[in-house]
Structures are given as structure tokens and as C-alpha cells.
């Protein structure tokens, strides 16, 4: 009769190695070509067309802002010309006189005009230079009772030059009304920069969740595969003994259950890979797997109130809205004032012609004046808008306070979850270390000596596998909270860009 070797002879020594050793392996960097969290973020920023579209919006805002400034202070030059003919017939009768006559006039009009103006951004003043030159020619003829009376052609040469400069002293003083569009455009541009940064960070946060899910499923698959390898080795040894059919059946059912779990995890991993393939074009995750620094911890902010005021974009955006509202109120307040302008001007008129005899004249005129005007009924529409934007200012104050409180509450909640997460991870480490010399190994040793039950071994393996999988979930959940915390603090991209 052939002597049967003990079951432990057929079981490889690797079975006796605690599963926790595998956990140490997957927590370490597993590929020199791995794609880290920061590299993943940078890849998205460099390659994804989503950000190019948002950058175009910012560029458009910059063009509009610069255009408003240039349009305000640019020289405006207009040139006009006029060519026409005027015909007039006049019949005049005088019953008390022996003379009555008809008079007809034909006039050829030729005129050239040019106007040049410029507003000065610093003080709201305006300079206007205009020049007109005309060459009218008149033909006139008269009739009376005694016959026709003719008149010589009248040809005139007219040159008019005017220069004036107006400075507002009350309404629109320092250009407060004219500069409103540009000032608001500057604030809109600053707001658009914050919007772009916020959009980027929200997008990156969303994609990092996919990044972490892939790492989670990949780590869990490694744990389950290791469990399958472990169970398969025991099954092979039991089959060789050929005397424990019930143990074979029970263990095979356990292996089938583990295989179903593996298929489920692999299916989830493939779903994440499809999402990542759109984001990481040309990256082969088999050759360049994703990697995370498992031991990384969140850098918690101590002074949340001060940090919120200085660094949180949502708060800054409300502050920009407040500045825009104050600028609008300032404009409507100034519009309430009367028009009170100081103007200096100079003009020169040259005229020469040959109406019967040659004539020539030249006239210079200088003027300095202060003009005051104000509607006695006031500006009702302006008063309505002034009241509206003053109330809106109070709305923005309340909105600021609400947003501030919401931020503090969210930050405190995440801070608590992160601190609790550290405690939870430490507890998992203790439990896993205890399992290295715990019941699992004892049950296996007893079974190998034919003094134990395979069901106890399977139950302990199930518990141990569940502990490892739960630890992975806990670690990934901690890092998701860490990313959400950095996103809330608007510093997720701080070390990338």
C-alpha cells in the first residue's frame, strides 16, 4: 500500500505567508512609468480642449476691455462733403408802388467739412476741432415793369475754423460717467479669470475621482487575485489527497464566489478605463498605470476665516460684484448733479468774394464760459436706478455672509472627516497587523494537520479579504476627501500650474 503524504506536503510554502504582505506591495510604487496624480492633472491641462475653449472666453473679455479703453480715448475724425444746387423763384408785388418784379436765384453749393475730437480719460474733458470750407456761386436775375435787370455772379470763398475744449466740473467730473463702461469691463475681466480657474478646478476634481476609482478597483483586483491564487493552491493540494471530497466542494464554491467578485471588479475597472481613454489619449494603462502616494495627508488650514477672505474664489467673486455695484452707484450719484462745464474756444472766419466789387473779411473770436443746467423736475429714471443698486448692495452683503458661512461649514465638515479618516486608517493597520498572527493562520494550520474544518479557513479568508478591501476603500475615500478639501480651498491646481 502506498503511503499517503500529509496534506501540508502538497501545499506550497507561499500559502503560509500572510496576505498582508501583498498589501505592502501594492502600497509601494509599482511601475517606474506610472502616471502620478500631479502628472495626470498636468496631462489634462495640457491636452484637453475643454480648457482651450474657456481660455478663448478669457481672451475675448481682454479684447473687449482693451477695446473699451481705446475707443474712449481715441481720436474721432470725420470728413464730410456737400455738392448740390438750389433753385428759388420769388414773385413780389407792391400795390402802392409802380414797381413790381420777380426774382429768381440759382445757387451752386460746394462744401467740405472736417471734425476732429478726442476725450481725455484722466479728467473727462473733450477737445473738438472743426474746419469748414465752402465755395458757393449764386446767379440772380430781377424783373420790374420797365424790363429785365441782371446781376453779376456772386462767388464767395468761406473758411471757418473752430477749436474748443470742455471740462466737466460736476456731472461727469473726472470722466466718472464716461469711464463707467471701461471700469466695469476691467472688473468683468478679473471675474472671468476667477471663473476660468474655478472651471478648471471643478473639471480636474471630477476627473480625479475617476483616477482614484481606477486605482481602487486595480488594488482590489490584485487583492482578489492573490486570494484566488492562495485558494487554488490549497484546492490543488486537497485534490491530490483524494480523501476530502466535501472540502473540495466547499472550497470550489468559495473560489467560484471569489471569481465572480473578480469579474465584477474587472468590469468596473474597464468602465473607468473607457472614461480615462477619452482624457488620456495615447496612454496605455497597462504600460503606464495610474499611481497615487498612498501615505499622502491633507494639509489642513488652521485659520479658516482669514484664509477664506484672502484665497477663496467664490468670496472674491462676490467682492468683485460688490465693486461693480459700488461703481454703478457712484455713476448714478454723479448723474444726479447738474451739468456744470467750463469751456474755452477760439474761432476764425475768412470770407472773400466779388459781389459787384471785390471784398474780403476775416474775423477772430475767443470765448471762455461756464455753463450750468439742471432739470427742475430732476431725473426720475436715474433716481429709480440709484435706489435699486443701493438695495442690491445690501443683497450682496447678505450673500457674502451666507457664502462665507457655507464655506466655513463645508471646510469644518471635511476637516472632521479627514481627521476621522486618519483614525480609521490607523485602526485598519492595527487590525491587519493583528491578523498576521491571528486566527486565519491558526485555522489553516489546523486544517493542514487534519484537525480543522475547511469552512473555518474559508470564513477566516473571507474576513481577511474583506478587511483588505475595506482598507482600500477607506484609503481611497480619504484621498477623495483630501481632493475635495483642496478643491474647496481653491488650491488643487496650486502646485501644478
- Percentage of residues in strands: 15-25%
Principal-axis shape: elongated
Number of strands: 8
CATH architecture descriptor text of the largest domain: Up-down Bundle
- Quickly name the level 1 CATH class of the largest domain: Mainly Alpha
Instruction: Work out the helicity level.
Output: 55-70%
Radius of gyration: 45 Å
Q: Count of helices? A: 11
Q: What is the arithmetic mean of pLDDT? A: 83
State the major sheet.
Answer: 8 strands, antiparallel
State the separation between the terminal residues, measured CA to CA: 77 Å
CATH superfamily of the largest domain: Outer membrane efflux proteins (OEP)
Domain module count = 2
Q: SS-based structural class?
A: alpha+beta
CATH topology group of the largest domain: Outer membrane efflux proteins (OEP)
Low-confidence stretches: 1-30
Tell me about this structure.
The protein has helices at residues 7-10, 20-27, 37-47, 49-73, 180-241, 245-279, 304-311, 313-335, 380-436, 439-448, 454-488; strands spanning 76-92, 101-119, 126-134, 137-144, 147-150, 154-168, 339-353, 359-373. The protein is elongated and about 155 Å long. 56% of the residues lie in helices and 21% in strands. It has 497 residues and is α+β, with helices and mostly antiparallel strands. Helix 3 (37-47) crosses helix 5, helix 5 (180-241) packs antiparallel against helix 11 (454-488) and helix 7 (304-311) packs across helix 9 (380-436).
Amino acid at each position: 500500500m502506498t503511503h499517503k503524504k500529509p496534506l501540508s506536503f502538497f501545499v506550497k510554502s507561499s500559502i503560509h505567508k500572510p496576505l498582508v504582505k501583498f498589501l505592502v506591495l501594492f502600497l509601494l510604487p509599482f511601475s517606474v512609468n506610472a502616471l502620478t496624480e500631479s502628472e495626470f492633472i498636468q496631462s489634462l491641462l495640457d491636452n484637453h480642449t475643454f480648457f482651450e475653449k474657456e481660455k478663448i472666453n478669457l481672451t475675448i473679455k481682454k479684447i473687449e476691455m482693451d477695446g473699451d479703453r481705446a475707443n474712449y480715448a481715441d481720436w474721432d475724425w470725420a470728413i464730410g462733403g456737400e455738392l448740390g444746387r438750389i433753385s428759388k423763384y420769388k414773385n413780389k408785388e407792391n400795390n402802392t408802388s409802380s414797381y413790381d418784379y420777380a426774382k429768381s436765384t440759382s445757387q451752386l453749393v460746394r462744401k467740405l467739412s472736417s471734425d476732429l475730437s478726442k476725450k481725455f480719460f484722466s479728467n473727462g474733458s473733450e477737445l473738438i476741432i472743426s474746419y469748414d470750407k465752402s465755395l458757393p456761386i449764386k446767379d440772380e436775375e430781377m424783373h420790374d415793369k420797365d424790363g429785365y435787370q441782371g446781376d453779376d455772379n456772386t462767388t464767395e470763398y468761406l473758411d471757418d475754423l473752430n477749436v474748443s475744449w470742455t471740462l466737466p466740473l460736476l456731472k461727469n467730473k473726472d470722466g466718472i460717467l464716461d469711464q463707467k463702461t471701461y471700469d466695469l469691463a476691467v472688473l468683468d475681466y478679473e471675474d472671468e479669470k476667477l471663473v476660468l480657474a474655478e472651471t478648471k478646478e471643478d473639471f480636474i476634481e471630477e476627473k480625479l475621482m475617476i483616477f482614484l476609482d481606477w486605482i481602487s478597483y486595480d488594488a482590489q483586483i490584485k487583492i482578489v487575485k492573490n486570494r484566488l491564487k492562495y485558494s487554488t493552491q490549497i484546492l490543488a493540494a486537497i485534490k491530490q489527497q483524494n480523501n476530502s471530497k466535501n472540502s473540495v466542494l466547499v472550497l470550489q464554491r468559495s473560489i467560484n464566489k471569489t471569481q465572480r467578485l473578480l469579474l465584477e471588479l474587472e468590469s468596473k475597472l474597464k468602465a473607468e478605463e473607457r472614461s480615462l481613454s477619452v482624457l488620456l489619449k495615447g496612454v496605455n494603462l497597462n504600460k503606464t498605470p495610474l499611481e497615487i502616494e498612498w501615505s499622502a495627508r491633507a494639509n489642513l488650514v488652521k485659520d479658516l476665516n482669514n484664509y477664506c477672505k484672502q484665497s477663496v474664489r467664490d468670496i472674491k467673486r462676490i467682492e468683485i460684484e460688490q465693486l461693480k455695484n459700488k461703481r454703478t452707484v457712484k455713476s448714478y450719484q454723479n448723474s444726479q448733479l447738474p451739468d456744470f462745464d467750463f469751456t474755452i474756444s477760439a474761432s476764425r472766419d475768412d470770407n472773400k468774394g466779388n459781389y459787384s466789387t471785390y471784398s474780403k473779411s476775416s474775423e477772430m473770436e475767443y470765448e471762455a464760459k461756464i455753463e450750468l443746467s439742471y432739470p427742475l423736475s430732476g431725473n426720475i429714471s436715474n433716481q429709480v436706478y440709484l435706489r435699486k443698486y443701493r438695495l442690491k448692495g445690501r443683497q450682496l452683503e447678505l450673500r457674502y455672509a451666507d457664502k462665507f458661512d457655507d464655506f466655513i461649514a463645508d471646510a469644518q465638515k471635511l476637516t472632521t472627516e479627514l481627521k476621522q479618516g486618519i483614525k480609521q486608517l490607523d485602526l485598519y493597520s492595527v487590525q491587519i497587523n493583528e491578523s498576521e498572527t491571528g486566527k486565519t493562520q491558526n485555522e489553516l494550520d489546523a486544517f493542514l494537520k487534519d484537525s480543522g474544518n475547511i469552512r473555518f479557513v474559508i470564513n477566516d479568508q473571507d474576513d481577511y479579504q474583506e478587511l483588505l478591501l475595506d482598507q482600500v476603500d477607506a484609503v481611497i475615500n480619504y484621498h477623495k476627501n483630501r481632493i475635495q478639501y483642496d478643491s474647496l480651498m481653491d488650491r488643487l491646481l496650486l502646485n501644478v500650474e
